[in-house]
Request: fold
Amino acid sequence: MCADHNDMASTVEELDRQVALANRSRPNMPFTGRCYWCNEKICRGNFCDRGCCEDFLRRRYANSQRVH
Reply:
């Protein structure tokens, strides 16, 4: 009887995990191998350094404030 409860709990846990994975947020900026700001080649992430990231975010914010 105890094994049945454990099996059921395991099944519920696996379903919860699958739902969480299906509903996770996807990165808006996929990895390209290049810095999004200066286009320098990188091995991971989206920017080569903090400065490029900050410049990119400043420009994106400024563009969002423009009246079209």
Q: What stands out?
A: The CA atoms of residues 29 and 46 lie 7 Å apart. The chain has a mean pLDDT of 90.
